[in-house]
């Protein structure tokens, strides 16, 4: 299933998405025992072990870059204040502060950039039809595993201690 994907040297099969997570890490986070192992085994055999490199962000250099950006912004503001000879003397109104906090809270609950294991960030992640077809087969396999998990969840004899939300008298 993954052989067409692996036959292309330019295709990064273990790429890290915009949350700095690989498909293998996503599979390891799946909270299902038997199905989780099936996904992890398949990924490690077919895709993850064949990656040339896994690009990780160097946390120290990222912290330095962030600190440098903050320092640059502060210096720019100080220079701007010195040139105009004006200082910030007001704090945003209470209404503006509340609106800002509400917007931040709403945005934090609705992540628009969630990417699932069987999806890609953009539909144009590759122009190679064979790679797209192999990825489609991989997606279908994961959807079949999801269906198996859903059917096991519906089987009350199999999950006798798994009843969902607590029921109070």
Automatic annotation (TrEMBL):
<dbReference type="InterPro" id="IPR036226">
    <property type="entry name" value="LipOase_C_sf"/>
</dbReference>
<feature type="domain" description="Lipoxygenase">
    <location>
        <begin position="91"/>
        <end position="169"/>
    </location>
</feature>
<protein>
    <recommendedName>
        <fullName>Lipoxygenase domain-containing protein</fullName>
    </recommendedName>
</protein>
<keyword id="KW-0560">Oxidoreductase</keyword>
<dbReference type="InterPro" id="IPR013819">
    <property type="entry name" value="LipOase_C"/>
</dbReference>
<keyword id="KW-0479">Metal-binding</keyword>
<keyword id="KW-0223">Dioxygenase</keyword>
<dbReference type="GO" id="GO:0034440">
    <property type="term" value="P:lipid oxidation"/>
</dbReference>
<dbReference type="Pfam" id="PF00305">
    <property type="entry name" value="Lipoxygenase"/>
</dbReference>
<dbReference type="GO" id="GO:0016702">
    <property type="term" value="F:oxidoreductase activity, acting on single donors with incorporation of molecular oxygen, incorporation of two atoms of oxygen"/>
</dbReference>
<dbReference type="GO" id="GO:0046872">
    <property type="term" value="F:metal ion binding"/>
</dbReference>
<dbReference type="InterPro" id="IPR000907">
    <property type="entry name" value="LipOase"/>
</dbReference>
């Amino acid at each position: 299933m993954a052989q067409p994907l692996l036959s292309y040297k330019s295709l990064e099969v273990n790429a890290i998405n915009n949350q700095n997570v690989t498909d293998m890490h996503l599979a390891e986070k799946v909270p299902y025992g038997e199905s989780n192992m099936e996904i992890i085994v398949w990924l490690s055999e077919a895709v993850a072990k064949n990656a040339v490199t896994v690009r990780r962000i160097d946390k120290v250099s990222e912290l330095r870059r962030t600190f440098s950006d903050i320092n640059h912004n502060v210096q720019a503001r100080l220079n701007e204040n010195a040139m105009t000879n004006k200082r910030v003397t007001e704090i945003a109104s209470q209404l503006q502060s509340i609106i800002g906090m509400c917007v931040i809270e709403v945005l934090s609950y609705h992540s628009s950039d969630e990417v699932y294991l069987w999806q890609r960030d953009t539909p144009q992640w590759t122009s190679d039809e064979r790679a797209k077809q192999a990825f489609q087969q991989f997606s279908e396999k994961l959807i079949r595993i999801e269906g198996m998990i859903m059917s096991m969840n519906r089987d009350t004899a199999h999950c006798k201690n798994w009843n969902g939300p607590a029921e109070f008298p």
